[in-house]
Write a structure and sequence with these properties.
With about 525 residues, the chain is of the alpha/beta class. The strands form five sheets. Strands 2-1-10-9-11-12-13-14-15 form a nine-stranded mixed beta sheet, with helices on both faces. It has a six-stranded mixed beta sheet with strand order 6-5-3-4-7-8, sandwiched between helices. α3 crosses α5, α4 packs across α8 and α12 crosses α14.
Length: about 525
Amino acid sequence: MNLLDDAVFGGRLAWDMGLLSPDGLRLAPALAMAVQRYGVGPAMGFEAVGNAFGDAVGLYDDFGALTFRELRDRSDALAVALGERGVEAGQTVALLARNHRGLVLSTVALSKLGADIVFFNTGFAKPQVTDVATREGVVAFIADKEFDDLVSGVDAARFDADDLDALIDEGLGRHPRKPERASRTVILTSGTTGTPKGASRDASSAAGAAMGFAARLKFRIRDTTLIAAPAFHAWGAAHLAAAMVLGSTVVLQRRFDPEETLRAVDMHRVRTLVVVPVMLQRILELPEDVRTKYDTSSLQVVASSGSALPGPLAQRWMDAFGDNLYNTYGSTEVSIATIADPKQLRAHPGTAGTPLRGSKVVIQPDGRIFVGNAALFEGYTGGGSKEMIDGLMSTGDMGHFDEDGNLFVDGRDDDMIVSGGENVFPKEVEDLLAGHPDISEAAVVGAPDEKFGQRLVAYVVKRGEISEEQVKDYVKQHTARHKVPRDVHFIDELPRNATGKVVRRELQSADGDSA
């Protein structure tokens, strides 16, 4: 890419996003002033949109509505109050909160102080919370009251994310000083295979890489975005950051509820819905008369990420709600690498799409996926990084490109099952089973086997009536024999973490106990 190409692309993107509209021209100088004061980050965004679109509603949550001006002024006040309680630039503060204004205001206030922010997963166990807080040097914890027990082992100041009004009232009308340094944000890995790792990246680098992301997901100024995915996760946080910069109205719900999500889409005329795949599954499981009583015609972008999107689920969603689904692939470490639009998902079910502008995706000879872009993380906060080859970073996944250049993610490199000398990736069998009309979802794991080394074990959530033998016969009819599960267990639901990923170790442990 050359400078002329970049300029043409940037100009076209600015036009498509509405940045050359009257609203965009009002926002531009406000952003410039905010960058000068706070650098690139959460504080910059809400300072700018508060000045540009003050009286417009910036946030709806379970507590009601806040205007952009209120978000700006209340985060100022919270920053002042936290500063008077000893929170300083360069210190690390932990956030453990569900999707509501407390998380947003705390994020912006800490950014205005120049403090570093660590987002904790609401699904962590108490030992994980304690270990990570100690490793990161957390001096204060802003957490929802429901997590009091989880944070009780952490030696740090404690603030209630559910009730920040007293602190805010204390600081109203006052403004924090310009911070001595820019705030940094640390996103934690899911911790499904051990102690969560902290991934830190430079906000300005991430912002520079965001143009391709914004173009493919059709971001627009003054949008309305419902972030159903957890905002503590990189996926939800990315959309919250985009909304902060573009003056989008954000809709948050403390807990995901499929019908309440559709109700909110109808009520607020939501254009962009941000989800993890299991949320699509739960919405589709609603009775048809419930799904169809809400007007979802405003939805133009349903952005899914965080875990693998089964091809059959994508087709079912678009059949029910229209061709508005976008499947994104990446990781906490490499950011977003590829996106599949509705046309690609129709033609190539299950694809992760094609690389974003500015991203390079390479499949190594052994099938491992490596990514290069300007938003690669800087390394784990506890030390170490991901493997690098020729400037590209490992995602930890295996995959392949089809003849049209569409990426398919076969599975985690450590999920591969070797049975009788044959390599099997669970995702292929899981996607196949998910396409059966009597199966809602399935997970496949490996279990020790004296004869074959490992055997395939399927855990199946039924949608209709189906037997163990019918499950095996269905797989046998559609793929190679060595991919047929030796054992089939029917369960009510798959174990998942807070971001919707299946926790395979729980299934493997259960199978080990029964073997």
